[in-house]
Design a protein that fits this description.
There is one protein chain. This protein is α/β, with parallel strands linked by helices. The protein folds into 2 domains: 205 residues, Periplasmic binding protein-like II (D-Maltodextrin-Binding Protein, domain 2, 3-Layer(aba) Sandwich), CATH 3.40.190.10; 210 residues, 3-Layer(aba) Sandwich (D-Maltodextrin-Binding Protein, domain 2), CATH 3.40.190.10. It contains 19 helices and 13 strands. Strands 7, 8, 9, 10, 11 and 13 form a 6-stranded mixed sheet that branches. It has a 3-stranded antiparallel sheet with strand order 3-12-6. A two-stranded parallel sheet has the order 1-2. Strand 1, helix 2 and strand 2 form a beta-alpha-beta unit. The radius of gyration is 21 Å and the shape is globular.
Length: 447
């Protein structure tokens, strides 16, 4: 979840994660038949540990954006390994994955492969995390990407990928408004651009400048807050995890960016969700800016391929007093294997995850089909074609990044405490000063 090389990591994983979305052999009624992935490059020979023995793997994961791709890739694996059956269940897209995962375990129907987010999740799930140190993927993970899931000499998760997020903008709208995106490197320049867009929104065909999905507490309580909390902990997720107190040093800077989005957003923001923000408002060019990350590329491409490929870019989230020209980049989630599954399933789970990231078909899918920056060594980054991923790559190359530390927040604090408090603030239910004191106290009590 940090910067530099770590950002490389994310994309590959994310991509992976993407695949997993709703199920290969899954019973999710919302999915359609997945596309056939058997026409890709010849894959490396599958591992032998599961040969002969019938094994069923239950995967429970959170990325809804890439279900078709993941299902297709998993089907390819099943074809190469007839003794392995993979069932994928996806919970996300507005649902709380952490709550759903706890319910899944409590039901007694424990998954074999699931997701953890970093040191706080490692603490919470320590009794169900298998050591993945012996996997090929762990040995190939880029520097710095395993810190959040390493404990006592063990590696307890494999990074999905590294992602970046900021303010995604519509290039056509900016050009017609006479705004040069490269000039937006400070809060002041962002405010000026937003006002210009607002003054011309009718001529530009906009409902509003922003679509702020405050119904999604992960957008506000995790992602937005991270840009303003990570600097306090020197962009170090472990430092955030170990912190007994939150100073919230940059809370005023966060308020300015939140207020800017809210003041110029489609209303009411507290009932505006991710799907409406990305698919209805941004993809149909009814708003010019949204706070999101590279994971929205496929959703936009499904709505308007031309807009996705040639018409979008990403702007910084300005943090006054720290960095005003940077974007947060880090590892979004990790794959975990349930150590309480039987030995055959644990072995098969490790082999499947290795295949995802090290086989030729897996690597090709990660880079070319899912358009992510690889999270592991052995990939050709020159093949990155997603324009958002390219820009994130450039930000990282230039050192214009902020670390991901929200996985070091106390359990549920980001969404259930800060995210909910932000909803109250945006609904005039409390002042910003009251919000700051409330969330600081909750952090200390959780620690």
């Amino acid at each position: 979840m940090k910067m530099g090389k770590r950002w490389f990591v994310g994309l590959a994983l994310l991509l992976l994660l993407s695949f997993a979305v709703v199920g290969c052999s899954s019973s999710d009624s919302s999915t359609e038949d997945a596309p056939d992935a058997t026409n890709t490059n010849e894959t490396e020979e599958a591992p032998s540990a599961t040969e002969g023995e019938e094994v069923s793997l239950e995967i429970f994961q959170f990325k809804v954006e890439f279900k078709d791709q993941f299902e297709a890739l998993a089907k390819t694996y099943e074809e190469e390994n007839p003794n392995v059956n993979i069932n994928i269940t996806t919970v996300g897209g507005g649902q709380d994955y952490g709550v759903a995962l706890r319910a899944k375990f409590a039901s007694g129907d424990e998954p074999d492969i699931y997701n953890v987010g970093g040191p706080q999740d490692v603490e919470d799930w320590i009794d169900s995390l298998a050591d993945l140190s012996d996997t090929q993927s762990a040995s190939l993970a880029l520097d710095g990407t395993l810190e959040g899931v390493s404990r006592d000499g063990q590696i307890l998760g494999l990074p999905y990928n590294q992602e970046g997020y900021g303010l995604i903008y519509n290039k056509r709208v900016f050009e017609e408004a006479g705004i040069d995106p490269s000039s937006i490197t400070t809060l002041a320049s962002l405010e000026e651009a937003v006002k210009t867009l607002d003054e011309s929104k009718e001529e530009l065909g906009l409902d509003a400048v922003f679509a702020l999905p405050a119904a999604e507490t992960w957008v506000t309580g995790l992602h937005l807050s991270n840009a303003f909390i990570a600097p306090e902990f020197n962009n170090d997720v472990i430092a955030a995890f170990d912190a007994s107190q939150l100073e919230f040093k940059y809370s005023d800077a966060m308020k300015k960016v939140l207020d800017l989005q809210n003041d110029y957003s489609v209303q009411p923001v507290v009932s505006l969700d991710y799907s409406r923000q990305v698919e209805e408002l941004f993809s149909l060019e009814r708003v010019a800016l949204i706070q999101q990350g590279n994971w929205v590329y496929n959703s936009i491409a499904d709505m308007d391929p031309e807009l996705a490929q040639d018409g979008i870019g990403i702007l910084p989230i300005p943090v006054e007093g720290f960095k005003e020209d940077a974007i947060p980049v880090g590892v979004p989630m990790y794959w975990a294997v349930n150590k309480n599954s039987d030995e055959a399933k644990i072995a098969a789970a490790k082999e499947f995850l290795d295949w995802l990231y090290t086989s030729e078909i897996g690597k090709q899918t990660v880079v070319e089909d899912f358009k992510f920056i690889p999270a592991y060594e052995g990939y050709d980054s020159s093949k990155i074609s997603d324009p958002l991923a390219k820009e994130i790559y450039q930000y990282a190359q230039e050192g214009r990044t902020i670390g991901w530390t929200f996985m070091g927040y106390p359990s549920s604090w980001g969404q259930d405490v800060l995210g909910v408090a932000i909803q109250k603030y945006l609904s005039d239910g409390q002042s910003w000063d009251e919000l700051v004191e409330e969330v600081k106290t909750a952090w200390e009590e959780a620690r």
